[in-house]
Design brief:
It is a single chain. It is built from 14 helices and twelve strands. It is α/β, with parallel strands linked by helices and 374 residues long. The protein has two domains: 178 residues, Nucleotidyltransferase, domain 5 (2-Layer Sandwich); 177 residues, ATPase, nucleotide binding domain (Nucleotidyltransferase, domain 5), CATH 3.30.420.40. Strands 1, 2, 3, 4, 5, 6 and 12 form a seven-stranded mixed beta sheet that branches. It has a five-stranded mixed beta sheet with strand order 9-8-7-10-11, sandwiched between helices. It is globular. The protein binds adenosine-5'-triphosphate (ATP) and the ligand CC(=O)N[C@H]1[C@@H]2OC[C@@H](O2)[C@@H](O)[C@@H]1O[C@H](C)C(=O)O. Keywords: ATP-binding, Carbohydrate metabolism, Kinase, Nucleotide-binding, Transferase. It catalyses: 1,6-anhydro-N-acetyl-beta-muramate + ATP + H2O = N-acetyl-D-muramate 6-phosphate + ADP + H(+). This is Anhydro-N-acetylmuramic acid kinase.
């Protein structure tokens, strides 16, 4: 029997998501049993660079020179985390087939008259500074075919986690939350449900100066404010049918401030608002899962899996579902997205189209990503 030439190959995935908490990087290996995590790291972003990117995302305005310089610096940061991880794991660049680099989304606008999505982190530089082929720009071909360009991970979830004859849900709770419904007949549905941690992070940073609510401790001190929750839930995005995707362009501090101003929020404690934002994420996620899937196991990944109150509320709001995290499927919940981009790089080099049209609404499945060779 001929041996399969792709078995044993190593790929690297780099993801830095909407939370801007750091750069997730993972080395994965194609084995006979699937795609296996070999090493991973999630170093924090340099604070100055993080602030510059946040400013670009929040102000939605940037000088072209600044944009170019931030793009350069972010790519250098990505190359650095790759080189560091290779050194720590005693692997050489020559052993890696490719890097899949998501880049940092600075604007995602899939629905306007001129849809676009923009990620920074020049893949030429990543290839040059690591000596490894870099695959990047994964979203825009899907958009070119009329798709949302997001979420992309449902295809990876299907490839790794689908089990014939069994319904499963994969729930990523990053800044934005997205669900993948894996149906027993191999059909897949996936979309962004709305805020995961992004509003909680923004509020916590504003009132406590901490970039996130560690272990949900601040939210635990508060009570849900029913009038505020009702108002937040009236956001039209939540009742829109998929395909749909969103980002910090919509769910941000201004979005929250506008709604707080409509209520007499001066009477509410900051902890109550934090608790209500957590409830907003839990309610919007659990409603969408229950709308599209019969009772089944829900496997959570992303930083939200580390928030015990959020996990507790998801289980309570979905009593017929079994909520755990992707560790139960042998993938570290903190690195599912990074490994997904390693997988997307592999798929690109193999020239496999990615089955996403049912998720993103694209007219056809496409080859995703551009290849930058050093
Ligand atoms: N110990 C913890 N307790 C509570 N929340 C946590 C904890 N650790 C991480 N988080 C939350 O997870 C977030 C980071 O999650 P993650 O890295 O999955 O997001 P992301 O990849 O940036 O976002 P996205 O998936 O939307 O692109 C943090 O901003 C924080 O809100
Ligand atoms: C435009 C963009 O960067 N979207 C991210 C974001 O973070 C979570 C959610 O919103 C998801 O739609 C997507 O990331 C993952 C990796 C995806 O494409 O599947």
């Amino acid at each position: 029997m001929l041996s399969d030439p792709i078995i044993g190959n190593y790929y690297i995935g780099i993801m830095s998501g909407t939370s801007l908490d750091g750069i997730d990087v993972a080395i994965a290996q194609r084995t006979r049993h699937g795609f296996v995590q070999i090493a991973a790291a999630a170093p924090a972003l340099d604070n100055k660079l993080r602030q510059q990117i946040l400013t670009i995302c929040q102000d939605k305005k940037v000088e072209l020179q600044t944009l170019g310089e931030v793009d350069f610096q972010f790519a250098c940061a990505c190359a650095h985390v790759v080189n560091q991880l290779l050194e720590d794991s005693r692997l050489s660049a020559a052993q890696i087939e490719a890097i899949g680099s998501h880049g940092q989304t600075i604007f995602h606008s899939p629905n306007g008259a001129f849809p676009f999505t923009q990620q920074i982190g020049d893949a030429n530089l990543i290839a040059a500074k690591t000596g490894i082929t870099c695959v990047a720009d994964f979203r825009r071909m899907d958009m070119a075919y009329g798709g949302q360009g997001a979420p992309l991970v449902p295809a990876f979830h299907q490839a790794l986690f689908a089990k014939s004859g069994e319904n499963r849900v994969i729930l990523n709770i990053g800044g934005i939350a997205n669900i993948t419904i894996l149906e027993s007949d191999n059909k897949v549905l996936g979309y962004d449900t709305g805020p995961g941690n992004t509003l909680m992070d923004a509020w916590c940073e504003k009132v406590n100066g901490e970039c996130y609510d560690k272990n949900g401790e601040f939210a635990f001190q508060g009570e849900v404010l029913p009038a505020l929750l009702k108002l937040l839930l009236s956001e039209p995005y939540f009742s829109q049918s998929p395909p749909k995707s969103t980002g910090r362009e919509k769910f941000n501090l201004q979005w929250l401030a506008k709604r707080l101003a409509q209520l007499d929020s001066g009477l509410n404690s900051n902890a109550d608002i934090q608790r209500t934002l957590l409830e907003l994420s839990a309610v919007t996620i659990s409603e969408q899962i229950q709308l599209h899937s019969a009772a089944c196991a829900v496997f959570v990944c992303g930083g939200g899996a580390l928030n015990p109150l959020l996990m507790q509320r998801l289980q309570a709001l979905m009593p017929d579902y079994w909520v755990s995290d992707t560790a139960a499927l042998n993938i570290d919940p903190m690195f599912v997205e990074a490994i997904a981009f390693a997988w997307l790089a592999e798929q690109r080099l193999l020239e496999n189209t990615i089955p996403l049209k049912a998720v993103t609404g694209a007219r056809r499945d496409a080859l995703l990503g551009c290849v930058y060779r050093p």
